[in-house]
Automatic annotation (TrEMBL):
It comes from Parthenolecanium corni. SUPFAM superfamilies: Alkaline phosphatase-like (SSF53649). Zn(2+) binds at D45, D319, H323, H365, H445. It is an enzyme of class 3 (hydrolase). InterPro entries: Alkaline_phosphatase, Alkaline_phosphatase_core_sf. Pfam families: Alk_phosphatase. Belongs to the alkaline phosphatase family. Its EC number is 3.1.3.1. One of its GO terms (molecular function) is alkaline phosphatase activity. This is alkaline phosphatase. Gene3D superfamilies: Alkaline Phosphatase, subunit A (3.40.720.10).
Length: 566
C-alpha cells in the first residue's frame, strides 16, 4: 500500500486545513477586559496595506505574515484631514495622538487655527491635549522613539501645539517667532519636558551650530537653530534642578552603556536630522542605533514606574523612502519596523508585561505605491510583472501613481513618447527608482485607509472601520486617563454576553469541554430591570456573582449613574 500523498498547495486538503486552523484560532480568541496599565503605540509612517503586503511577500512569501499581522484584533482607519482628502504627517499625527482631526500642516491644534498664523494658535481653547499629557496626569511614565527628527511632524503632535509643522526651530519668519518653536516646546513645556524617554534625530533643531561630519550632514531642507540656544544643555540643567537622574546619549556605544535601572530620564539624539536608512546605517559602536535597538532600553526605563507607562514608536523612514520613489527601500524599512514590533513583544514577554499592556500598530497614512499586473508567484516582488500589450515594454510589479523626475521614466522624441525599459536596470536594487505615472516634485501621500492591529487589554475595541482619531480614544479608555480618567466601569458587548449565556446552558455538551465554554458555563446572566443598550452597541447585564468572570475576564457591573446615562 502506497504512502498517502502529502498535502501541498496543489491539493484541496491543504487549503481546507489552513481554513480549519484559522477557525480554531478564532474560536480560541479571548477578550481582555482589564484596564491597560501600559500602552505601546507603534506607527509605521506611510505603512499602508500595499506596503504591508509587499513587505510580507518579500520577507515570508504570500502565505507568511509579519509579526503584527498575527495580532488578534484589527480594523481600518480613515485618514483624511479636515481640509484634505489626503493627509500629511502633521494632521495624521495630531489625529492619532490627540483624538482630534485638524488641517494639513498643523500640529496639536484644531481647525480654528489658521495655517502659518501664530496668533490664532495661542488660545488654550484651540489646543488639543495628547495621550502623553493624559498619561502624565495619572502618574505614568512616558516617552517616544523615532528614526526621524524628534521635532518632526508626526511625533511633535505628542507634545507641541503649532500653526505650522515647519516651525521646528527659531529660524522661521518674524511673525512665527512670536510663538515658541517646536524644539523649545519639547524641552521647556509640558508634556515635553516631562517625557522620560526621547530617542531620535534632530540635533540641528535643538542646538545652535550643531556639529556635523561627512556622515552626518546638516539637512538644508530643515531649519537649523540660530538663536544661540542649546536646548540639550537646557534639558540637562532642568533635570539637575529637579534632582532627577538623567543621561544624554549620542551613539550605539552610549546606548549600550545606558543603565536604565538608575536612570529616570534619557535623551538620545543620534543625528542632525533623520537617522540613516538601515541599508546605510553605521552599525559600529560610534554609529546610530536601529529602531529595534532603541525599543528595548526605552521599555526597560519606562516599566519601572509603578503606575505604568505610555510609549510611542515611530518608523519614519518608510515614508521617506516612498517620497523618494524607492519602493524596495520602503519595504526594507517596513521589515525593520516589524523587527521593532517583535522586539517590543519579546521584551514585554520577558518582563511579564504582556497581559497588562495594550499594543497598537498602525500606519498613520498611506502612499501611492501599487502592486501591478499578474506576476508569477516565484518572481521577486521587485521584479518585472509583464509586458505591456500596447507598447511592448515591460513594467515592474511595484509602481507609483506619482513621483519625481527619477521615477518619471518617459522619453519624448518629436511627437512620440516612449517609456523606458525597466529590464535594462536592476529593479531589485535598493536604490532603484520605480516608475511613476504622474510627474510631481516628489511622490505624494495616498488617501486610502490604513490598518490598525492590536493586542492586549481592550484591543478588541478595534473591530471595524474607524476614524483615525479613534486610536487616541481607545488608548485613553483602556488606560483610564484623559476623557476616561474616572470611567471605572465597562459595558459588556451584547454578542459577548449572549455567547456566554448560551454556553452556560451547554456545559454538558462536547463544546462545553473547551476551556472557554467551561469557564463560561459557570455563569448565568440576567438583564437588569429597565436596562437598555446605547445605540444598540451594548447591553447592561448583572451576574449572579458580581465577581465572576466569563472566558477568564471579569464583567464589572455599571453604576446607577452610568445606567441612567445609557
Amino acid at each position: 500500500m502506497s504512502a498517502p500523498v502529502p498535502a501541498t498547495r496543489a491539493h484541496q486538503e491543504y487549503w481546507r486545513r489552513i481554513g480549519r486552523q484559522e477557525i480554531e484560532t478564532s474560536l480560541r480568541r479571548q477578550v481582555n477586559w482589564r484596564p491597560a496599565k501600559n500602552v505601546i503605540l507603534l506607527v509605521g509612517d506611510g505603512m499602508d496595506p500595499n506596503t504591508v503586503t509587499a513587505a510580507r511577500i518579500h520577507l515570508a512569501k504570500e502565505e507568511g505574515k509579519l509579526s503584527f499581522e498575527r495580532f488578534p484584533h484589527l480594523g481600518l482607519l480613515k485618514t483624511y484631514s479636515t481640509n484634505k482628502k489626503v493627509p500629511d504627517a502633521a494632521a495624521s499625527g495630531t489625529a492619532l495622538f490627540t483624538g482630534v482631526k485638524t488641517n494639513n500642516g498643523m500640529i496639536g491644534v484644531d481647525v480654528r487655527v489658521k495655517f502659518d498664523d501664530c496668533m490664532s494658535s495661542l488660545s488654550p481653547h484651540v489646543r488639543a491635549t495628547s495621550i502623553m499629557k493624559w498619561a502624565q496626569e495619572v502618574g505614568k511614565a512616558t516617552g517616544f522613539v523615532t528614526n526621524r527628527r524628534v521635532t518632526d511632524a508626526t511625533v511633535s503632535a505628542l507634545y507641541a501645539h503649532s500653526a505650522s509643522r515647519f516651525w521646528e526651530c527659531n529660524n522661521v519668519s518674524r511673525e512665527a517667532q512670536m510663538c515658541k518653536d517646536i524644539g523649545r516646546q519639547l524641552m521647556e513645556d509640558e508634556p515635553g519636558r516631562n517625557l522620560n524617554v526621547i530617542f531620535g534625530g534632530g540635533r540641528q533643531t535643538l542646538m545652535t551650530n550643531a556639529p556635523f561630519t561627512v556622515y552626518d550632514k546638516i539637512d538644508e531642507f530643515t531649519c537649523s537653530r540660530s538663536d544661540n540656544r542649546d536646548l540639550i544643555e537646557s534639558w540637562l540643567n532642568d533635570k539637575a534642578i529637579r534632582n532627577v537622574k538623567s543621561q544624554y546619549i549620542q551613539s550605539n556605544n552610549e546606548l549600550v552603556q545606558l543603565d536604565t535601572s538608575r536612570t529616570e530620564y534619557a535623551l538620545g539624539i543620534f543625528s542632525n536630522s533623520f537617522l540613516p536608512y538601515e541599508s546605510q546605517r553605521n552599525k559600529s559602536l560610534t554609529g546610530q542605533p536601529s529602531l529595534e535597538f532603541m525599543v528595548e532600553p526605552a521599555i526597560k526605563l519606562l516599566k519601572k514606574n509603578y503606575n505604568g507607562f505610555v510609549l510611542v514608536v515611530e518608523a519614519g523612514l518608510i515614508d521617506k523612502a516612498h517620497h523618494e520613489g524607492h519602493a524596495r527601500k520602503a519595504i526594507e524599512e517596513t521589515i525593520e519596523f516589524d523587527k521593532a514590533v517583535r522586539k517590543t513583544m519579546q521584551v514585554l514577554h520577558d518582563h511579564g508585561l504582556v497581559d497588562d499592556t495594550l499594543v497598537v500598530v498602525t500606519g498613520g497614512h498611506g502612499h501611492t505605491m501599487s502592486i501591478n499586473g499578474y506576476p508569477n508567484r516565484n518572481e521577486s516582488i521587485f521584479g518585472i510583472a509583464d509586458l505591456s500589450k500596447h507598447d511592448g515594454v515591460p513594467y515592474t510589479t511595484l509602481t507609483y501613481a506619482t513621483g519625481s523626475k527619477v521615477n518619471f521614466q518617459y522619453n519624448r522624441r518629436d511627437n512620440w513618447v516612449s517609456r523606458e525599459d525597466p529590464s535594462s536596470k536592476d529593479t531589485t536594487d535598493i536604490n532603484y527608482a520605480n516608475l511613476a505615472a504622474i510627474l510631481t516634485d516628489k511622490e505624494t501621500h495616498g488617501g486610502g485607509d490604513v490598518t490598525v492591529y492590536a493586542t492586549g487589554p481592550m484591543s478588541h475595541l478595534f473591530h471595524g472601520v474607524h476614524e483615525e482619531t479613534y486610536v487616541a480614544h481607545v488608548i485613553a479608555y483602556a488606560a483610564r486617563f484623559g476623557p476616561f480618567r474616572n470611567s471605572a466601569e465597562k459595558v459588556a458587548p451584547a454578542f459577548f454576553i449572549i455567547v456566554c449565556s448560551v454556553f452556560s446552558f451547554l456545559r454538558t455538551s462536547i463544546v462545553a469541554k473547551t476551556s472557554f465554554a467551561t469557564n463560561a458555563a459557570k455563569h448565568i446572566f440576567r438583564p437588569l430591570p429597565n436596562s437598555r443598550s446605547s445605540s444598540g452597541t451594548g447591553l447592561i447585564y448583572d451576574t449572579l456573582d458580581a465577581a465572576s468572570t466569563c472566558g477568564g475576564h471579569k464583567l464589572i457591573v455599571p453604576t446607577e449613574a452610568l445606567k441612567k446615562s445609557l
